[in-house]
Amino acid sequence: MRELLVATNNPGKLGEFRRLLSHLPVRVLSPGEIGLRLDVPEPYDTYAENATVKAVAFCRLSRRLALADDSGIEVAALDWGPGVRSARFGGTDVTDNATHLLERLRGAGDRRARMVCWLALAIPGAHPEDEPEVELFSGTVDGFVTTERRGEGGFGYDPIFELPGGQTNAELGPQEKDRISHRGRAVAAAAPRIRVLAG
Prior knowledge:
Layout: E1 2-6, H1 11-20, E2 26-29, H2 47-62, E3 65-75, E4 81-82, H3 97-104, E5 112-123, E6 133-145, E7 161-162, H4 174-180, H5 182-198
Parallel strand pairs: 1-2, 1-3
Antiparallel strand pairs: 3-4, 3-5, 5-6, 6-7
Helix pairs in contact: 4-5
């Protein structure tokens, strides 16, 4: 069984990836499980570039197949921001970006939004000096920003992102969320390639 390093230290995201990848013949590892400590800046203006720089850095250092994501929420009333800045939307003084977003949208009539995920899969070369090969996959789901937090599940923006069916991501069970979420759709797109590489 091939090892797959998921390039995140976020426990919520790591748990989600473990579920999403559980049907594939890979052993999912976190950086901490192999003693890897790496903080990779995400300076780019696209999800794909930010995911790529993380995947490549973790692949180079670990010499393992590495999967990294960059994801975010895009809101019509904010000119389809914050996008790639979603994790840093409120700045260093804000500990809850979801609540910060609700405050920014107070009174807004247009609450259309979408969640976007880009995955970068970095494949180590035959020799240590070889540059990793990178393949990209994406997933998007449309919805709305609620006027209040709803649900106890998920993490990040999940309690304020309402799907067309009327529930927030945080109100869904893990399996249902995995089936329709932006990250679930991106992993579904990547799964056939991961299966080939694992074989």
